[in-house]
Amino acid sequence: MSTLSQAAMQVQTKPSLHKTLFATCIGNALEWFDIAVYGFFASYIAHAFFPTSDASVSLLLTFGSFGVSFLIRPLGAVVLGNYADRHGRKKALLLSINLMMLGGAIITFMPEYGTIGLAAPLLIMLARLIQGFSAGGEFGSSTAFLVEHFPKRKAFIASWQFATQGASTLMASAFGLGLTQILSEAQIQSWGWRIPFAFGLLIGPLGIYIRRHVHEPASFAQQEKSAAPLKQLFGAQKELMLLAVGLMVISTAVNYMLNYVPTYATKTLHLPGSVAFSATLLAGAILTLVTPLMGLWAERVGRVPLMWGSLLLLLVTIYPAFRYMVNHTSPLTLMLLVGWMALLKSIYFSTVPSVMADLFPVGTRASGMAISYNVAVTIFGGFAPLVCTLLINATGSSLAPGYYLMAVSLLSAAALLRSRSRVA
Fold first, then answer.
1. Does residue 10 have a pLDDT over 50?
2. Main-chain phi, psi angles of 150, to 5 degrees
3. pTM of the model
4. What is the C-alpha separation between 224 and 364, in angstroms, rounded?
5. pLDDT band at 41 (very low <50, low <70, confident <90, very high)
6. In sequence order, what DSSP letters do the residues of 233-261 get, joined into one string?
7. Which candidate, 130, 415, 170, places its Cα nearest to that of 278?
8. Residues 6 or more apart from 313 whose CB is under 8 A from it?
9. d(CA 169, CA 63)
10. Cα→Cα distances 326→104, 146, 264, 273, 337, Å
11. 223: which DSSP letter?
């Protein structure tokens, strides 16, 4: 069958909402599950692969590897986003999920430093780089795939991109909470931390199977493919990418702050690990349930009012919330802070994917979204735990995460103000 005939058949096939959602979101879920697990179990990974005489240095090395893996994400965005715009969203989605599984397998089965020495941290770094590269192209390809299949429901359907991130946080937190209840500290340190990574590997084959049986969106199949989408992006569309980066800044910063919570709660606030994982479990539940509901609401009231409301609330409440929790540290105040951040993130997060998609034309959409998203994630997300750890150590103040979130919320507000004429 000719390529033209295949394209015509795909255009005529009415996509299934549930199948399309599952095919795109499962890869996103795998990506964020691995990221959340790495952040939640950072102290155990530090002991296994980055041992030093100073626990703080060991932890900084672990978060450094967490952050360094994000440096390659823009490269993955360029390569895989360009591949998606030139050769198809489906092919790019299949490639990214296979790479995610490879990185996850290395982390799951890697012997510790005490067994293979320096090779252990180097190979863990390699695994994180592979995962970072694959994740670089996932968001742009999958979001473009969703909004192009269902353009009339773009706010709702694109919100599932980030609802799956909440589901991943929920699953990762459940593993953390369950392991702290079932296993001893020594057992978790020895082998228990590997269990959630092994679980992540089970998601991959199902995602590959589903993605093999979906079609390209009609709007993309009918689009004349550009031979040089990157040239267009870095030429006439530079401002669009800057706006998209700005819109993502606060969203990704809050997301990685939630991943940082278990380490922040145990190392800085000296709360039990079970309390920390309970808080992130609450965050995951809120993100999973509230985000698609906000996507539905955005279809009624518009996306921009929801974005402004959540941004302004975050800006004026985050410092008092952190200060109250630090001055009245308890499981309840930690849960309230995390729940509040997750709620505001859900409102803002639900609108961002479809707004970013609207900024770019079809021919450069996957590349534009992928590059913008991953630049924001790399600079303001991947290094957020490291920056906050350094700020806390340098200033001696447990309020450093609150200052960080206030600063990045101003950047997103400026981007939203600038892009108001392009979205509604």
1. no
2. -135, 70
3. 0.79
4. 11
5. confident
6. HTTTTHHHHHHHHHHHHHHHHHHHHHHHH
7. 170
8. 344
9. 18
10. 35, 41, 11, 17, 10
11. S
pLDDT score recorded for residue 59: 67
Token look-up 């999973």 returns: 288
* CA geometry: angle 141, 37, 31, nearest 5 deg: 10
Q: Angle 119-149/365-376 helices, nearest 10 degrees?
A: 140
Per-residue pLDDT, 53: 64
Give me the pLDDT at residue 171, please.
84
User: What pLDDT is attached to residue 63?
Assistant: 66
Q: For residue range 247-306, list pLDDT tens digits in order.
A: 999 988 887 777 677 677 777 778 887 787 788 788 888 988 999 999 999 989 989 999
The Cα angle at residue 275 between residues 266 and 177, in degrees rounded to 5: 105
214 is written with which tokens? 């979906």
Could you tell me where the DSSP H helices lie in 88-118?
Answer: 89-109, 113-116
Residue type for position 21: L
In the chain, the amino acid numbered 274 is: S
**Structure tokens belonging to residue 111:** 């012997």
* DSSP per-residue string spanning 38-60: HHHTHHHHHHHHS--SSHHHHHH
Question: Looking up tokens 């450094």, which residue turns up?
Answer: 64
Q: Token pair of 65, please?
A: 């590897």
Residue that wins the pLDDT comparison between 399 and 190: 190
